[in-house]
């Protein structure tokens, strides 16, 4: 079962429980059994699943709950908390800081995705303002340097390596020294892998580590091994002072849930997950937002980070304002789709929007997801302003739905389905806190928003931005954040 499916199954089990007229022991037991089945299918260890179930049962003692308590909410919260606990090793990892040289060494078995991940890690930090460089100390696999060179060139990241030198320690030291002198602040050392855990691999790792004195050793592990992750992570942790783990190949893999929970059980912090072969297929792993996204509850802070990473400055404010508005209209959904298409990778971003789960656009099915968004947008193109901006659920009557279907060339059922999806998402948004810290609600911003919204000829008639400013001042411009 892929992770998006796992999230979908758990969310469905919770929804079914929420829709029951009375929440009694049977409803709770059915809900928990469904959740446990989904976890087992995602290859989570039996012991872990059993503990999750026992803990939820302990927290949610229906008999002891006072009359009038919201049992549904207590059950939902207990499930979310248990999923978080299952994935949380409770230990933060070292994070590189700017303004000083940071050396990070990557270790892992052959084929785990180590070399690809080094480049993803470098690229991620460059977007955060670091100056990264790559050193290829993998002398075991012929072609390793070529691969790193290719990846680094594609990502435009400086690299160091040798076709002739066979001593990985010598290359690692030369590369680190060179980049230190050149004032790079994040020096990433890629080391050799082996087909299996063996003494020679661990000895080489130890030597490279001793010579380069890394601030952090990252163990890269293939997520498709599922529960076996526990033993592998444990072995690497004991043999090299591994400070963090990156789990790769989490894209649509059946065993991803098992790998993540198994690594967490070794008390090693997972810091990123790899979700595809390409450089942007890389996500920060933080337990709370991850669980929220898994269950379709979104990850607003992750979304805001992505917007800041990928979107030009002059467009950031506009989308942040919209996100902070609180009322989720169809127009907002439309604009979000428009903006997200520009800043991709779409699957990752969509799941950060509250109300969407990873199933909306599944990894590997981006084309289908894109087509779905396009279909939604075509239907919305056939709506009137009142429909796009409306908040009255009764507005969308049958004749309007028929008209939208005719106008967009889609079937009536498709329009109904899209509106149902929208209502579901809007319901989630209603419960969200407003993004106050991202709202710089001053008069200038209000002015910009109004000037964006009115037709250009009207703005000219008002005397441009200055005229608009004057007019608002006369009307007593307000600051909505106070
Ligand atoms: N689907 C998917 N493939 C990945 C991911 N990360 C890496 N890969 C692929 O996995 C394969 C192995 O990756 P490498 O980076 O060569 O692995 P490595 O661990 O450096 O291998 P050695 O250098 O031999 O030790 C390549 O085909 C990568 O494109 C991921 O997150 N998802």
Automatic annotation (TrEMBL):
It comes from Zea mays. Pfam families: SRP54, SRP54_N, SRP_SPB. This is Signal recognition particle 54 kDa protein. CDD domains: SRP54_G. GO terms for molecular function: 7S RNA binding; endoplasmic reticulum signal peptide binding; GTP binding; GTPase activity. Keywords: Cytoplasm, Endoplasmic reticulum, GTP-binding, Hydrolase, Nucleotide-binding, Ribonucleoprotein, RNA-binding, Signal recognition particle. It is found in: Cytoplasm; Endoplasmic reticulum. Component of the signal recognition particle (SRP) complex, a ribonucleoprotein complex that mediates the cotranslational targeting of secretory and membrane proteins to the endoplasmic reticulum (ER). As part of the SRP complex, associates with the SRP receptor (SR) component SRPRA to target secretory proteins to the endoplasmic reticulum membrane. Binds to the signal sequence of presecretory proteins when they emerge from the ribosomes. Displays basal GTPase activity, and stimulates reciprocal GTPase activation of the SR subunit SRPRA. It catalyses: GTP + H2O = GDP + phosphate + H(+). It comes from the Eukaryota. PANTHER family: SIGNAL RECOGNITION PARTICLE 54 KDA PROTEIN, SIGNAL RECOGNITION PARTICLE 54K PROTEIN SRP54. The lineage of its organism: Eukaryota, Viridiplantae, Streptophyta, Embryophyta, Tracheophyta. Residues 269-282 form the SRP54-type proteins GTP-binding domain. Component of a signal recognition particle (SRP) complex that consists of a 7SL RNA molecule of 300 nucleotides and six protein subunits: SRP72, SRP68, SRP54, SRP19, SRP14 and SRP9. InterPro entries: AAA+_ATPase, P-loop_NTPase, Signal_recog_part_SRP54_M_sf, Signal_recog_particl_SRP54_hlx, Signal_recog_particle_SRP54_M, SRP/SRP_N, SRP54, SRP54_euk. NCBIfam families: SRP54_euk (TIGR01425).
